[in-house]
Structures are given as C-alpha cells and as structure tokens.
Design brief:
The protein is an alpha+beta fold and 251 residues long. It contains three helices and 18 strands. It folds into two domains: 83 residues, Immunoglobulin-like; 115 residues, Immunoglobulins (Immunoglobulin-like, Sandwich), CATH 2.60.40. Strands 2, 4, 5, 6, 8 and 9 form a six-stranded mixed beta sheet that branches. Strand 16 and strand 17 form a beta hairpin. The radius of gyration is 29 Å and the shape is elongated. This is Ig-like domain repeat protein.
C-alpha cells in the first residue's frame, strides 16, 4: 500500500621612463587601493545579499498544479516589498510582516524556468529561479458508460492514456484512480479505486473487465467522477493528475 505522504583600468604615468622607481611605487599603491576597494565592494554586496534572501517551498511545480511558494526574508521588519516574475510585477501587493513576505506562483504559468526577484527599498534586491515542469496526463476520453448487467468483455470501454513527466515519457511508475479526486492519503484514501503500471513511453490503460469499471459499477446507477494520478514512485513525493473523468453507470 503506497502512502502520500530550491574593471580594473591600468594607467601608466607619462613620466614612467624618466622615474621608474617612482612609477613602480605609484602603480603598486594604486593597485593596492583598487584591490582594497574591490574587496570592500564585494563585502558590501555580500552584506546586502544577506539583508534580503529568497527561499522556495520546492525547486519547481508541475504545469497546471499549485505553484511554488517563494518566501522573502528581510532585515527590515516592516514595509513594502515588490515581487516580479520574469520581469513582470505580480498584481497582488505585498508587505513585510516581521521581516517576511511570501507569494505563490500561479498554476497557469507555462512550462519553463522563471526568474523571481524581490526588492525592498532601503535594503536591496534578491533573486531566485523557479521551474515549471512540462507534466500532464493525456487521456483517450473524459466520459465513459458502463453497464451493470451486460457482459464486461463485450460492453466495458477501454481508457488509454500517456504520461508526460518533466518533459519526458516515463517507463515506470503508477497511475492510480480516485473517486471524486480524493487523493489525500494515496492508496489509503477512501476514494482509492485501483491502479495501473506505466510502461514506455509513458503508456497505461484500463481495459475491459478492469477493476476500475467493477469498482465504479459497485457505486450504483448514475454518473461518478474519477481522477487519475501518476506518481513515479510509491512514496508519492511527486505526482501529476488528470482532468476529471465522468463514468456513467447504467443498469
């Protein structure tokens, strides 16, 4: 039973040939000054970076699902904070509360890598990258009819599908079926019906006389909603789900 559980410019003095010793001393002093300034500048940048940091709830999200939550931590405890995604400011206005502010990327973002930036006046800027994976379950149909009385071998439909996970088609994993999309608890969920193993290239099917149809028939005459979920491992650490499927049971 499986459970469900981020310029240096060099200048040479005009009198270099006439006074090599002085020129050497001046060049050395200038270089030392520039090195010192560079070190101070680098230290200032590091300090500024630590004054505002960004963290992610996870490295990425799957297309169409809840987006990654980005949390900003600032040395400034109160005030406005501006978030941008791919250079575009988010519509929702955010404020720091006890030095923190967060927002969730929308589920409508197309697959790709997005740079998220945050800016707090008087503190500085910070940035991080978030991935939206190209993942989905494509199905042969979204509505089916099954009969309680007819022979399953001649009346049951066949549901086929293909998994796309992080841009590829997996050769292993599981596709579970859940009544009303109740996936909480994984295979321990009250809504769990059955599963099918995935084979290359991401293919799966629920054929005639399959347990899926038998389980739905047991629910009685009427239309029942079922959602499919793909998980690459039994841990349910990551998953992708389908659109809702309507299965109508007739006498």
């Amino acid at each position: 039973m499986r459970k469900l559980a981020t310029l240096i410019t060099t200048a040479v003095a005009a009198g270099a040939l006439a006074a090599p010793a002085l020129t050497f001393a001046a060049t050395t002093a200038g270089a030392a000054t520039q090195v010192g300034q560079t070190q101070v500048s680098a230290a200032a940048q590091v300090k500024a970076a630590r004054a505002l940091t960004l963290s992610k709830s996870k490295p990425g999200s799957h297309w169409g699902q809840a987006g990654v939550i980005v949390t900003a931590k600032s040395k400034k405890k109160r005030g406005k904070i501006t978030f941008t995604v791919a250079g575009q400011p988010i519509k929702e206005k955010k404020k720091l509360k006890k030095g923190k502010a967060k927002f969730q990327l929308p589920s409508t973002l197309a697959p790709g890598t997005y740079k998220v930036r945050a800016k707090v006046k008087g503190v500085g800027k910070a940035a991080t990258k978030v991935v939206v994976y190209n993942s989905s379950l494509s199905l042969s149909a979204l509505s089916f009819t099954v009969s309680q009385s007819a022979n399953c071998s001649t009346s049951d439909p066949v549901l086929t599908g293909q998994v796309t996970f992080k841009g590829g088609h997996p050769s292993e994993g599981y596709v579970d079926a859940y009544l009303n999309g109740d996936i909480q608890g994984g295979s321990a969920s009250p809504g769990y019906l059955t599963f099918d193993s995935v084979e290359a290239p991401g293919a799966f099917d629920f054929g005639v006389c399959d347990t899926l149809w038998d389980k739905v028939k047991e629910l009685g005459v009427g239309t029942h909603n079922v959602k499919l979920l793909y998980t690459p491992t039994a841990s349910y650490a990551e998953y992708v789900y389908s659109d809702m499927i309507a299965i109508t049971v007739v006498p």
